[in-house]
Amino acid sequence: MNKLPDEVQKLLEKENLEVVNVLQRADSPRRRFYSLETRRKTGGETLLLKIFARGDPGVVTAFYKEVGFLKLVTERDSPQIGMYTPRFLKRGDGETPWYLRTCAQGSFLGDICYDFGIRDKYLGEEIGEEFGNFFFALSKFTSEISETSFFSTLSPHGFSWYLDDWKHYRESSETVGSAVFEKLRQLLKLHRSLLDNSTKVLVHGDLYLKNVFWSNNIGLGNEKESPLSVIDWEILHLGNRCFDPVFIWMLGWKNSQWQEELKSRVWESFEQEGSESEKELSILWNIVRCSLALRFIRHAEIMLEILSSREKEARHNAEQALSVYRKELEIALETLS
After folding, report:
1. Cβ contacts of residue 146 below 8 Å, gap of 6+?
2. What does pTM read for this prediction?
3. Are 4 and 23 in contact (CB under 8 A)?
4. Interatomic CA distance for residues 83 and 86, integer angstroms
């Protein structure tokens, strides 16, 4: 293992921690943070130490957003959302802010650069049910913290955010035609008010496969823990209640029945909350579907340029994903029109 910087070594000594594994280093071109699996030198459970690197105000903002959320969940001992999030333990400020939390247990649901979707073995009924419960719990936690100062710092992702996202992929996509982008632009403008008025709930916004863990050894006989664990809350924001569910729903493309059952569970929770009409929810669902389809299409395009001919399975998955997401975009646009 390469030597860690002096400030990291000093922090480890101060907190009486030893490194078990270096999960991510910050001395890369992006220089975001160090993520270290650690434990107390005196023994005990494995802990995650996340140290945010200097020099980027956006990274520091992400730190205070993530640590603020985890701290609120832990302090309020919320029985619902707390089942799905690591337990916050301690933080430090200064030039290199850091925090310590429990480690998420289990395995990733896949690798977005290899599988391009949730692996088949995880597309079972129990996981679908836990995702439905997680989305509902996050929505409920919104009302629990809506009067806090932390809640007021979160940015809304309404019409302007979707338009900026649209501009980004219009400029970068290689396989989506200009007519498709123009059609989506018109639909975004048509539903501008709905997009702005629906930024009411907490949205994780980054539910990629390595931000979600599943463990078969957790949750059995313990109502305070779930086998599903969600990490990396850096881009938490206020958005519409469809964004996170559609994110996971789309990544479940390898099993259409699983997708159908997940959507049914999510729709039931929407009906319980009753904030938007069924028509409005259908519009939001399909706008998010378009937005994420563009994102996943571009990812598949990039990976097909990078993956070598020897990486046959990964290339096959990328080609499949590209075809699926192009079809999802087409269907969503037709539904909205």
Report:
1. none
2. 0.94
3. no
4. 8
